[in-house]
Task: inverse folding
């Protein structure tokens, strides 16, 4: 559905995207990467908001550079910083966006707006001014407007930031359902968001694709590289500096550490089952090590 | 389209929900109240209400243009850069719909401001009882000017705001406007002639002189046509600017039809702008050329000093005038001139406006003639001895129209379907002597700055006129300062000369004076004459001189010519501007009397004398100054009055004996004035003589 070839972008002398090559198919596509990696820039480019300097992108068979209008007809987008005029109500915003998306028929619009409000559990707050929304409510309104018009390409930039656990679960279910028949590109810092329903993952690091593959592939990177080490609590600080510790817990006066490393850090280290997060960290860290 | 409507509705709703906007509007209304209320505490004459409103509005307008162009820059920037707007850009809406929708929603706010402005004007006029027609005119004019001006500036700011991310655009726009204000303030606050008229082509709007083809004064009736043309041009430019903004706004995001149509639309919008702009340019250029040509003509007139042939009289003048079309007349004239000089005269200068084409000058005694400017030099076959007369016949035709610059742009020599206005001073028939039909100064340092004014001319003797209009052109009846006979036939003897007038006028006699006046102004005319009549009588009674004019033409603004700023020509035909009855200002009795005194304001002594005469006639003044002459004189600010103590005492002495005695003294002083002449007259000398005579009288 989306084919990105040799995509590059620069802000002045800062190279934000470097020769990106990605192919995305129907389903959920997770985009990971540390702050400043270029995720938002990549997503904005796909949304036709950023001009393409080098490389080629084709979405649903349309060339991004030439046929942006055709892509916009099929697009739903939740920006990282979703801001709307505070004096409007949630419902008004949705109606406005629906009109912009070309849903001209009033009845149609009413139905769709009611539906998306229901999906994000905002029906009760629909008539309230957006100014009075909490951060999470605003985020949910953003999700609602993105899925208006039943877009075949849904791009959501950190959709779950600020959502409470219940809402996050509701969101995941929604995404699961929607991803059956469309491509959803989701960028996030919360690995568990994509761990469940995601087939395709890419990790962006410093503007380059550091990893591209399935969730299992990402997890497999960490196979035989995750260890559990128990050390006296007094040495905890010292080991933090020398080892790559990704988690820790206290047991009596001992510290149990989850350590990433090619070799076991100590002889009595216990090998652990790798998680996606471990794969991600290895991808990102090995890169930093250069 | 429907998407754009949705954008406009939504964004406009958003705008109007902002409290700040309403605070700004309320502040604007308050600003006007702050201007108006102190003004209304002292009641103001009606016609000044308009002048006052437009004067203040002109300043406000310029700042509004600055303000709204900054708003436009802001609007464009938020359209390009705001988070929500970026979200809108990911929807299929076209660039044009998005951009124009945003622009329009702001423009509605701009128009709301205009609406507030004309509402204020409307209410203020209503409250002041300004007549409905003027109110309608003024409000329409304001709406058109202000609306198109601010809309343009907003569009310009919007278009510039599309150009870059930097805030430098705000500075650019601000400094651009301030530069324009500077030019404007140089122009409007200084002499009316201080700028090249072509500059007015570049003004987005102005309530003053800018809109007329050449320097014009205030008067909506004068400016409405050129104002409409100019603002039409500005409106077209506004559309053009928006078309260009459409091209600048995210060119890569354009959808296919926009890509195809952007340039053609800009091209199509360019055409009407170019046409209107060219018309406007032409209008200014041709008027300006004509004005300059005339100015140069009179500046270089070699006969500037010579005025009239003192030793001749024009006994009779028979004129046959036809007006075959607008701005054109054909005249056949027969005149009889008489030589009064002791010497035999073989030549004579006469004057006829230079733009006429003379077909023939004939006469039994006419040997040859030549033309030099407005002058015609005639040579006789047989020189004329004292008392001898000869007949001269002219045949000529041409356009008599002339344009002057006074307090406003004024046309004379008008021959149009709506009316005819031919004054003697236009040289529309052969005048006796070599005369200047215009006066002009050219400023060498500022090449475009020159001044062209009509001249005043007086005749030595009376002429018997016989004027027939054969091809009247206009449906209106003709009138004249001469008595009307049957049809368009005028006859009579006049010292002034002949004036021909047709239009929406009535000819009538009020208290013995011939009056030509637009019918709806008759009540005003009656009131004005009723005010002057007792003064004429008083002057006649006290000084023995009649100052009552032969005729008075009451002309609505636009026709009025005010030669030399005198109230009436000294030949006894007054040309006065007239206002509707309800707009007439109260006149100060003293000022009115002074306006009629046959003693010109020449020296401190004549100034003193004028005050003294006025005192004798005015009842009002006596009340105001508690019968204290000295008090009144002091207030007149006459130069060197301290040295005139004795004279004042003398006059006060007379005043104590009653009005009759005082008036007698004044009459004697006037006799002395007539003997001594304007240059040599002093009050002291005159009184000394008088006292001597009185003493002599007592002795004998
Ligand atoms: N408009 C801009 N001008 C200049 N540099 C920019 C601009 N936008 C982003 N950048 C830079 O580009 C790089 C990538 O930014 P981007 O927002 O795409 O990162 P991100 O992966 O979304 O980060 P985060 O997880 O924090 O959202 C950063 O270094 C950022 O500073
Ligand atoms: Mg981001």
Result:
């Amino acid at each position: 559905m989306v084919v990105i070839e040799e995509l590059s972008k620069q802000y002045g002398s800062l190279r934000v995207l470097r020769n990106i090559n990605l192919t995305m198919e129907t389903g959920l596509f997770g985009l990971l990467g540390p702050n400043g990696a270029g995720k938002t820039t990549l997503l904005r480019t796909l949304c036709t908001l950023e001009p393409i300097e080098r490389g080629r992108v084709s979405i649903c068979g349309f060339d991004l550079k030439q046929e942006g209008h055709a892509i916009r007809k099929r697009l739903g987008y939740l920006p990282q910083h979703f801001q709307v005029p505070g004096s409007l109500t949630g419902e008004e915003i949705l109606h406005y966006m629906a009109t912009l998306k070309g849903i001209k028929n009033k009845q149609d619009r009413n139905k769709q707006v009611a539906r998306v409000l229901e999906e994000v559990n905002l029906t009760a707050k629909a008539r309230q001014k957006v100014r009075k929304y909490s951060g999470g409510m605003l985020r949910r309104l953003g999700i609602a407007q993105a899925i208006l018009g039943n877009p075949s390409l849904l791009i959501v930039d950190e959709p779950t930031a600020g959502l409470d656990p219940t809402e996050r679960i509701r969101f995941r279910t929604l995404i699961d359902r929607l991803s059956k028949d469309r491509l959803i590109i989701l960028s996030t810092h919360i690995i568990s968001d994509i761990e469940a329903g995601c087939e395709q993952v890419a990790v962006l690091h410093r503007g380059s694709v550091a990893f591209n593959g399935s969730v299992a592939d990402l997890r497999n990177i960490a196979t035989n590289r995750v260890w559990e080490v128990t050390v006296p609590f007094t040495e905890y600080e010292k080991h933090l500096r020398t080892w790559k510790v990704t988690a820790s817990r206290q047991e009596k006066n001992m510290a149990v550490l989850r350590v990433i490393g090619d070799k076991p850090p100590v002889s009595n280290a216990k090998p652990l089952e790798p998680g996606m997060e471990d794969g991600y960290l290895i991808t990102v860290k090995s890169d930093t090590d250069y | 389209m429907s998407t754009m409507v949705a954008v406009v509705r939504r964004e406009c709703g958003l705008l109007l929900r902002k409290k700040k906007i309403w605070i700004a509007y309320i502040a604007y209304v308050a600003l006007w109240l702050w201007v108006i209320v102190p003004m209304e505490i002292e009641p103001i004459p009606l016609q000044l209400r308009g002048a006052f409103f437009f004067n203040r509005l002109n300043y406000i307008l310029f700042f509004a243009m600055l303000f709204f162009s900054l708003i436009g820059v802001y609007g464009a920037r938020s359209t390009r850069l705001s988070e929500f707007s970026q979200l809108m850009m990911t929807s299929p809406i076209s660039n044009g719909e998005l951009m124009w929708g945003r622009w329009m929603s702001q423009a509605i706010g701009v128009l709301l401001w205009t609406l507030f402005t004309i509402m204020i004007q409307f209410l203020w006029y209503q409250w002041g009882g300004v007549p409905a027609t003027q109110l309608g005119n003024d409000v329409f004019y304001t709406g058109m000017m202000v609306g198109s001006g601010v809309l343009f500036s907003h569009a310009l700011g919007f278009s510039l705001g599309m150009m870059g991310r930097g805030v430098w655009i705000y500075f650019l726009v601000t400094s651009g406007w301030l530069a324009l204000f500077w030019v404007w303030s140089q122009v409007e606050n200084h002499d009316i002639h201080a700028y090249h008229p072509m500059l007015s082509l570049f003004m987005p709007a102005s309530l003053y002189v800018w809109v007329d083809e050449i320097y014009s004064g205030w008067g909506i009736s004068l400016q409405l046509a050129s104002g409409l043309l100019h603002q039409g041009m500005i409106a077209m430019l506004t559309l053009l600017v928006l078309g260009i903004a459409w091209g600048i706004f995210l060119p890569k995001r354009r959808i296919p039809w926009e890509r195809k149509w952007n340039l053609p639309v800009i091209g199509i919008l360019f055409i009407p702008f170019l046409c209107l702009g060219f018309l406007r340019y032409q209008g200014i250029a041709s008027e300006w050329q004509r004005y300059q040509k005339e100015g140069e003509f009179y500046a270089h007139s070699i006969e500037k000093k010579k005025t009239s042939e003192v030793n001749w009289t024009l006994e009779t003048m028979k004129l046959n005038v036809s007006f075959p079309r607008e701005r054109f007349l054909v005249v056949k004239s027969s005149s009889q001139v008489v030589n009064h000089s002791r010497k035999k005269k073989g030549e004579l200068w006469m004057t006829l406006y230079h733009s006429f084409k003379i077909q023939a000058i004939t006469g039994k005694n006419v040997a040859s003639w030549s033309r030099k400017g407005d002058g015609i030099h005639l040579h006789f076959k047989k020189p004329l001895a004292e008392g001898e007369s000869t007949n001269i016949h002219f045949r000529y035709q041409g356009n008599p129209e002339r344009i002057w610059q006074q307090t406003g742009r004024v046309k004379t020599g008008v021959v149009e379907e709506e009316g005819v206005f031919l004054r003697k001073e236009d040289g529309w028939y052969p005048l006796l002597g070599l005369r200047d039909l215009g006066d002009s100064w050219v400023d060498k340092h500022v090449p475009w700055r020159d001044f062209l004014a009509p001249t005043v001319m007086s005749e030595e003797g009376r002429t018997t006129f016989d004027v027939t209009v054969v091809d009247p052109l206009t449906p209106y009846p003709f009138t004249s300062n001469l008595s009307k006979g049957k049809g368009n036939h005028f006859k009579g003897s006049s010292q002034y000369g002949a004036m021909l007038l047709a239009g929406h006028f009535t000819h009538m006699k009020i208290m013995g004076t011939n009056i030509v006046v637009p019918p709806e102004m008759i009540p005003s005319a009656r009131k004005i004459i009723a005010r002057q009549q007792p003064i004429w009588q008083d002057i006649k009674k006290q000084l023995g001189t009649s100052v009552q004019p032969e005729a008075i033409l009451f002309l609505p603004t636009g026709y009025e010519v005010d030669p030399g700023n005198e109230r009436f020509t000294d030949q006894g035909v007054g040309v006065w501007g007239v206002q509707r009855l309800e707009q007439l200002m109260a006149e100060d009795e003293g000022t009115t009397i002074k306006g009629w005194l046959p003693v010109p304001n020449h020296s401190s002594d004549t100034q003193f004398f004028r005050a003294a005469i006025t005192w004798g006639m005015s009842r009002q003044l006596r009340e105001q100054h508690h019968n204290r002459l000295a008090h009144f004189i002091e207030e007149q600010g006459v130069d060197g009055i301290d040295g005139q103590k004795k004279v004042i005492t003398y006059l006060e002495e007379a005043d104590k004996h009653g009005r009759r005695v005082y008036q007698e003294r004044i009459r004697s002083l006037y006799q002395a004035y007539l003997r001594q002449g304007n240059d040599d007259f002093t009050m002291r000398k005159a009184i000394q003589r008088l006292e001597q005579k009185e003493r002599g009288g007592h002795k004998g």
Remarks:
- Chain A has two domains: 2-213, 224-273.
- Chain A touches chain B through 28 residues (CB under 8 Å).
